[in-house]
C-alpha cells in the first residue's frame, strides 16, 4: 500500500454505538477499525446520517474524488484512493465519554493560543514554556488557574517569583476550559463542520489522543 502520511494523520471523530462522541483519533486508527468491521463511517448529508462499511466507503470515495475532492483528505493505494472519513462509529462500544478536559501541555498551549501570557507575543511550541503563576516553591498548584504559557525570555525574567514580585502583568486571567481547547481549534475549520451536531459542550467534553 502506498500511504499519504498527511492523510493518515488526519483527525476523525469517533462515536460510540449510541452516536455519542468519545474522542478524536487519527485516520490510521479509524481505517484499522473500519477494516476489522469494528466501526462504520457516518456521513452527514443535508442533515441525514448515512452509514457505510469499509467496502462501501471505498466505492463512495470514487464519487467524492470526482465531485468534491477538496472536502477530504485522501489515502492513495496501488489499486484505489479512499477519502478519509470525518466521523466513524464504533459498533460494539457504548461507554459514556469522559467529562473533563485533561490538564496537559497540548491543551494548555491550545488554550492560550501559543501566546506568551506576559508579553503577548505568539511563538512556536518549541519556543514556549509553562509557567506557574504562583511558583510551586511558594505553594502554587498544578491547576488550570495557575499555569500559563510563557516565552523563554519572560519565564527567565519572572524566575521563581509571582508576577507582582517580578513587576510583570498577565494579559488575561487563566481559566479552566469548559471544552477541549484543541477541539475548539478543529471546529473553527469548515472541514470539521459535521462534528458540531454530535458535540454538546454543556454536558461533556471530548478527550483528544
What does this protein structure show overall?
The chain has two domains: 5-98 and 181-208, no CATH class; 105-158, Orthogonal Bundle (DNA Binding (I), subunit A). The chain has helices at 5-8, 27-35, 54-67, 105-111, 152-158, 181-187, and strands at 11-15, 21-26, 39-45, 48-52, 74-76, 81-83, 87-90, 128-132, 147-151, 207-208. A hairpin with a 4-residue loop joins β5 (74-76) and β6. The longest helix is centred in the first third of the chain and has 14 residues, at 54-67. It has 209 residues and is an alpha+beta fold. It is elongated and about 65 Å long. The strands form three sheets. A six-stranded mixed sheet has the order 4-3-7-1-2-10. A two-stranded antiparallel sheet has the order 5-6. The protein has a two-stranded antiparallel ribbon with strand order 8-9.
Indicate the percent of residues in helices: 10-25%
Distance between the termini: 25 Å
Mean pLDDT: 87
Q: Which class of secondary structure composition applies to the elements?
A: alpha+beta
Radius of gyration: 21 Å
Main sheet overview: 6 strands, mixed
| Number of structural domains | 2
What is the strand content?
Answer: 15-25%
Number of strands: 10
Give the spatial strand order of the biggest sheet.
4-3-7-1-2-10
Number of helices, where a helix is a run of at least 4 consecutive DSSP H or I residues: 6
Structure characteristics:
DNA Binding (I), subunit A, single chain, alpha+beta, 209 residues, six-stranded mixed beta sheet, 23% helix, elongated
Amino acid at each position: 500500500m502506498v500511504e499519504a502520511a498527511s492523510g493518515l494523520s488526519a483527525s476523525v471523530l469517533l462515536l460510540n454505538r449510541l452516536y455519542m462522541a468519545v474522542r478524536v483519533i487519527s485516520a490510521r486508527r479509524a481505517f484499522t477499525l473500519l477494516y476489522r468491521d469494528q466501526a462504520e463511517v457516518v456521513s452527514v448529508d443535508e442533515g441525514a446520517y448515512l452509514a457505510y462499511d469499509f467496502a462501501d466507503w471505498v466505492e463512495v470515495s470514487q464519487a467524492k474524488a470526482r465531485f468534491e475532492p477538496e472536502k477530504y483528505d485522501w489515502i492513495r493505494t496501488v489499486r484505489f484512493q479512499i477519502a478519509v472519513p470525518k466521523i466513524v462509529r464504533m459498533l460494539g462500544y457504548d461507554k459514556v465519554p469522559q467529562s473533563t478536559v485533561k490538564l496537559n501541555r497540548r491543551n494548555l498551549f491550545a488554550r492560550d493560543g501559543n501566546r506568551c501570557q506576559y508579553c503577548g507575543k505568539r511563538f512556536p511550541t518549541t519556543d514556549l514554556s509553562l509557567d506557574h503563576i504562583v511558583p510551586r516553591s511558594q505553594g502554587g498548584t498544578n491547576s488550570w488557574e495557575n499555569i500559563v504559557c510563557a516565552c523563554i525570555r519572560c519565564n527567565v525574567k519572572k524566575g521563581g517569583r509571582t508576577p507582582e514580585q517580578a513587576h510583570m502583568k498577565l494579559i488575561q486571567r487563566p481559566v479552566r476550559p469548559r471544552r477541549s481547547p484543541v477541539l475548539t481549534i478543529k471546529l473553527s475549520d469548515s472541514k470539521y463542520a459535521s462534528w458540531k451536531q454530535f458535540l454538546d459542550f454543556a454536558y461533556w467534553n471530548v478527550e483528544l489522543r
